[in-house]
Amino acid sequence: MKTKNATFMETMIGEKQGSNSLTMMLLKGRTLIVLILLLIFFSIVTPNFLSANTFLLLAKHVALYGILAIGMTYVIITGGIDLSVGAVVGLAGMVAGGMIQNGITLQVFDVTLYFSIPLVILFTLLVGAVVGLINGITITKFGVAPFIATLGTMYIARGFAMLHSNGATYSNIVGNEALGNVGFTLIGGRVMGIPVGALILVVIAVAAGILLKRTTFGWHIFSIGGNEKAAKLSGVKVDKVKILVYIFSGVCAAIVGIITASQLEAAHPASGETWEMNAIAAAVLGGTSMMGGIGTIGGTIIGAFVIGVISDGMVMCGVSEFWQMIIKGLVIILAVIVDQFQRNMEAKIALQARNDTKGEE
Question: What sections of the protein cross the membrane (predicted)?
Answer without folding.
Answer: 32-50, 62-81, 88-109, 115-135, 142-161, 192-212, 243-264, 284-310, 322-338
